[in-house]
Design brief:
There is one protein chain. With 297 residues, the chain is an alpha/beta fold. Helices cover 34% and strands 20% of the residues. It is built from 10 helices and 11 strands. Strands 1-2-3-5-4-6-7-10-11 form a 9-stranded mixed sheet, with helices on both faces. The model has no long low-confidence stretch (mean pLDDT 94).
Length: 297
């Protein structure tokens, strides 16, 4: 059973469904504009992120006539936290996505995955290849640069003393300004609102700190040989777009080039001056994504 309520000003319906292991999960559902029917798009966010990361690009995709589904992965955003941190793993997330699509009656879709979202997509392709019509991998691939992984491990799930909203904005900016040097004060305010909950007390992160447990235990990353198998399964016989931030410390230029090498169905686009991960609001990433979607079913 899946229920929802309208958010007319935001352009989406909020929906909830219950996973097979009993968690209450959430997604945003943007209706596609009128016209010829086109396959829906499913957008999957990064490790500590949530559905609000797509609040700028999702309406643009919907305006092209595609329904856009943007879930909060378990433990993030409006989705329930899991008491068993071992379930914070791509295989579980992929299973949740399949259950969501089944609940919505969606058999096939185009997938857009940022960072961890791309990993979820690769796991999804292993057992549900027919569900993925085309794939967009945003700053993610079969190999993760050690420098980037160490940077993420340095802050994910770790307690931070944030006494005020201004502290939260400053902290988010400090963590991300080298990757997003073009952001202004308004951009940092919006990103903080996507990252923290603003209430009467101290700001709180919009994710369960326990998501760090599998990462720190080395269980969140597949061995390189298996990761490449997952990637090849994903891009076999379907169009794919790989977006890389020019200064990314997660997806190296060498790995990105290897992902596209010899594959006429894989397009590689680099976003200048941006690190991990492009927000898909930059002109280079936005235009590449919309152009790619214009060419696929």
């Amino acid at each position: 059973m899946i229920g929802g309520k309208n958010e007319p000003e935001a352009g989406f319906v909020e929906r909830r469904w219950t996973s097979s292991d009993g968690l209450s999960l959430y997604c945003r559902d943007y209706s596609g504009a009128g016209g010829a029917a086109r396959l829906p798009v499913v957008c999957l966010h990064g490790l500590t992120r949530n559905s609000s990361d797509f609040e700028d690009i999702a309406p643009l995709i919907a305006a092209t006539g595609r329904r856009v589904i943007v879930p909060d992965v378990r433990g993030r955003g409006e989705s329930q936290w899991d008491v068993n941190s071992a379930n914070y793993a791509p295989r579980t997330y992929a299973h949740d996505v399949v259950e969501l699509l089944d609940a919505l009656g969606i058999g096939r879709a185009v997938f857009v995955g940022t960072s961890m979202g791309g990993v979820i997509m690769m796991f999804l392709a292993l057992r549900n290849r027919g569900r993925i019509a085309a794939a967009v991998l945003n700053d993610v691939g079969p190999e993760v640069s050690p420098e980037g992984l160490a940077r993420i491990q340095s802050y994910v799930g770790r307690p931070v003393n944030l006494a005020s909203w201004a502290d939260a904005v400053s902290y988010v900016r400090t963590l991300n300004e080298s990757s997003l040097p073009h952001f202004d004060d308004d951009d940092w305010e919006r990103m903080t609102a996507r990252t923290y909950t603003r209430g009467t007390g101290a700001p709180t992160p919009r994710y369960d700190p326990a998501i760090a447990a599998p990462l720190n235990a080395g269980k969140a990353k597949a061995p390189a040989f298996l990761a490449w198998i997952l990637y090849r399964s994903l891009v076999r016989s379907r169009s794919a777009l790989v977006i890389r931030g020019e200064t990314s410390d997660i997806l190296s230029g060498k790995t990105a080039e290897r992902m596209a090498a010899g594959r006429t169905n894989v397009t590689l686009v680099e976003v200048p001056g941006v690190g991990h991960a492009p927000t898909l609001s930059e002109s280079a990433s936005r235009d590449a994504l919309l152009s790619f979607l214009d060419r696929v079913p």
